[in-house]
């Protein structure tokens, strides 16, 4: 079931759609074998992350593969400020590992349980007009394909394919590893207040320019909007 509870799929036929084949690889070799088997059988295969996309992008009634057991942080290079992780590694795991080196990811979404593979493949976003979506933190990735084998992609060797695979939605193959560009960690200060919709409309452009992070949460059936502004507050 998706995080929002609007879509679900079952392991066996019952009261809803069912998936015929469900895979949970533990190694990259397992992924290669599963992809090859599905290609031979002409079986559709979708990669399932944490189920946080409300549209069920990871669901299929033919074949689904969970990356949850491919969840290691492989290395951190403090000099280049880069980290290599397996696709099933959770955002919180990566943040905790980087913190030991005084580093952080440049942008986060609001849910720490996301797997890095899904987090980047759907181009998740945080907040802030000058901060790019999370896929732009990816500087290299390993892609398992049904026809082209295992490909290590980056912007220098194959820039066009790398850009497409970075937000491939699982259509070009299965991402098993990623290298992410981190940034120095900073302390942030959050200011939260309630404004009216009219006040938000009048101040939106100014708040967007004046804050590193800005987000709104409208309270349904009211004229109240929760405004959250977050900015660096020191080293």
Average pLDDT score? 85
Give the biggest beta sheet.
Answer: 5 strands, antiparallel
Q: Level of helix content?
A: 10-25%
Shape estimate: globular
SS elements, strand count: 13
Number of contiguous helices? 5
Strand-pairing-aware structural class = alpha+beta
Strand order of the largest sheet: 4-5-9-7-8
Give the DSSP E fraction (strand runs of 2 or more residues): 25-35%
Order of helices and strands: EHEEEEHEHEEHEEEHEE
Radius of gyration: 20 Å
Cα separation of the termini? 41 Å
Which runs of at least 5 residues are low in confidence (pLDDT < 50)? 12-16
Q: What is the topological layout?
A:
Blueprint: E1 21-23, H1 28-41, E2 46-48, E3 63-66, E4 73-77, E5 82-86, H2 91-99, E6 103-104, H3 116-121, E7 138-145, E8 149-154, H4 159-166, E9 174-181, E10 183-184, E11 187-196, H5 197-210, E12 213-218, E13 224-234
Parallel strand pairs: 1-3, 2-3
Antiparallel strand pairs: 4-5, 5-9, 6-10, 7-8, 7-9, 11-13, 12-13
